[in-house]
UniProtKB/TrEMBL annotation:
Binding site for FAD: 60, 149-151, 315
Lineage: Bacteria, Pseudomonadati, Pseudomonadota, Gammaproteobacteria, Pseudomonadales
Pfam short name (any one): Pyr_redox_2
Keywords for this protein: FAD, Flavoprotein, NAD, Nucleotide-binding
Residues of the FAD/NAD(P)-binding domain: 15-328
InterPro entries from the UniProt entry: FAD/NAD-bd_sf, FAD/NAD-binding_dom, FAD/NAD-linked_Rdtase_dimer_sf, Pyr_nuc-diS_OxRdtase, Pyr_nucl-diS_OxRdtase_dimer
Protein name per its UniProtKB record: Dihydrolipoyl dehydrogenase
SUPFAM superfamilies the UniProt entry points to: FAD/NAD(P)-binding domain, FAD/NAD-linked reductases, dimerisation (C-terminal) domain
Organism: Pseudomonas matsuisoli
The family this protein is said to belong to: Belongs to the class-I pyridine nucleotide-disulfide oxidoreductase family.
Positions of the catalytic residues: 443 (proton acceptor)
Keyword Transmembrane helix set for record: no
């Protein structure tokens, strides 16, 4: 795909130049153009968004395959016999790749909607705060520039010596078949999601991490539940240091710390983080302030880097590496770049992240402080969850102690990826535990399990705010 003309002038001029055509970059260009700005969108590959190609979509395709097998194996609970269940690893990966390619293709079709002359196929490097040098020899001068270069998978030592036996989220989905064994290095959301998905598809998985937590979940009750659930499917080696070397077509992994051991694996999945893709961008020529990691210092309400005409959005700013956040940041950056030097702050939505384990995890808003009121809903005896043979997990609400206004929540359990959207809306609207209890809760649903935690918060408030437990429903309903 190429929108540029072979007879383009050596020097290009525009109002807003955007580097990177991922989710944030596309949103930034579109927002700037809607403000009437003349735009250029620069990308060296036009490969589609990280989400569609190597992130959200292929990972969820693998996850739902594991969930399908788990559901079949659990059918006996309901008196349904299914006999011997087999996993065709090649068929699993073929579907992952086929559907992944469908999503990527749909994303790329959006490139065709770009106006003539907007898209440039090249790499870009700053030579000044308002000037870019392109890899094809041309230069771009712009009133404002948006950095939306995304991120890349880090492969630290010693895993960088393993060759093709070291996988990342950008290569694991290219496997022609499921491996027999897999070591997962890193316990963030990507590592935990893919580790459980592979384990549930019959892969012998072990997960290793330098710290003692999974998924970066701070609430100790949710963290404990997540550990119990993940440990059912694989070996967990937390708070350890890991070494590895290649021996033929296997990887030998050894670890030490809280425990020690050594074993062989077919592959290692390195999920130790995705740093911003900023190397070689020439940021040192711009005069903007960089933090200790070389990432621009910026205002998250305007996406502006200091007092400059440079803006940053998406994974490149290393703040909220989530698709909807990248889209929002791109739109904020694009609008402000088009309006520069007039820049307007935008109120950001509450922090909201999901981990697509089974059951899913959600974290919203802000963590509690010592003055927060906290309410807990235990899903181990929740009525609808028991019906579905999914009775596990916990919801933790955080609220202002004097008003009951919700400030955040951490949750793990069946349907929490959907329930979390209800709570995100509640945070945005400033709802209290009391006003949420005033809404109807249909019986029997997973949502009505939220009431215990909301009532606990209300009971901690002054007496005229207290609420009595409803009668007539089974415990945990």
């Amino acid at each position: 795909m190429s929108k540029e003309r072979s007879n383009a002038q050596p020097d290009l001029h525009c109002d807003v130049a955007v580097i990177g055509a991922g989710t944030a970059g596309l949103a930034a260009e579109r927002a700037a153009r809607r403000q009437g700005a003349k735009t250029l969108l620069i990308d060296d590959q036009w490969a589609g968004t990280t989400c569609a190609s190597v992130g959200c979509m292929p990972s969820k395709l693998l996850i739902v395959a594991g969930e399908a097998l788990t559901a079949v194996k659990g059918a006996a609970t309901f008196g349904i016999g299914v006999g011997d269940v087999q996993v065709d690893g090649r068929a699993v990966m073929e579907r992952v790749q086929r559907e992944r390619d469908h999503f990527v293709s749909a994303t790329k079709k959006g490139f065709d909607d770009l106006p003539e002359g907007v898209a440039l196929t090249a790499t870009a490097c700053f030579t000044g705060p308002d000037r870019l040098a392109l890899s094809d020899g041309r230069t771009v001068t712009a009133k404002a520039i948006v950095i939306a270069t995304g991120s890349y998978p880090a492969i630290p030592e010693p895993f960088d010596t393993l060759g093709d036996l070291a996988l990342t989220n950008e290569t694991i989905f290219e496997l022609p078949d499921l491996p027999k064994s897999l070591a997962v290095i890193g316990s963030g959301p990507v590592g935990v999601e893919l580790a459980q998905a592979m384990a549930r598809l019959g892969v012998d998985v072990a997960l290793f991490a330098q710290d003692d937590s999974l998924g970066a979940v701070k609430d100790e009750h949710v963290q404990a539940a997540l550990k119990r659930i993940i440990a059912r499917d694989m070996a967990l080696h937390l708070d350890v240091e890991v070494d590895a070397y290649r021996d033929g077509e296997e990887v030998v992994v050894s670890w030490s710390g809280t425990e020690a051991g050594e074993r062989r694996f077919d592959y290692v999945l390195v999920a130790t983080g995705r740093p911003p893709r900023l190397k070689g961008l020439g940021l040192e020529t711009t005069g903007i302030e960089l933090d200790d990691h070389g990432t621009p210092v910026y205002d998250p309400h305007t996406q502006r880097c200091g007092a400059s005409s440079i803006f940053i959005a998406g994974d490149a700013d290393h703040d909220r590496p989530i698709l909807h956040e990248a889209s929002d940041e791109g739109a904020i950056a694009g609008r402000n770049a088009a309006g520069y030097p007039a820049v307007e702050p935008t109120e950001r939505t509450p922090s909201f992240s999901l981990i697509f384990t089974d059951p899913p995890v959600a974290v919203l808003g802000t963590a509690p402080d010592e003055d927060s009121a906290i309410g807990t809903s235990d899903y181990r005896e929740q009525g609808r969850a028991r019906m579905e043979n999914k009775a596990e997990g916990v919801v933790r609400f955080y609220a202002e102690a004097d008003t009951g206004k919700l400030t955040g929540a951490s949750l793990i359990g069946p349907g929490m990826d959907h329930i979390a959207h209800l709570l995100a809306l509640a945070l945005m609207r400033g709802e209290t535990a009391r006003t949420l209890l005033d809404m109807p809760f249909y019986h029997p649903t997973l949502e009505e399990g939220l009431r215990d935690g909301l009532r606990e918060i209300c009971s901690a408030l002054r007496s005229d705010m207290r609420v009595d437990r409803d009668q007539g429903c089974p415990p945990g309903a």
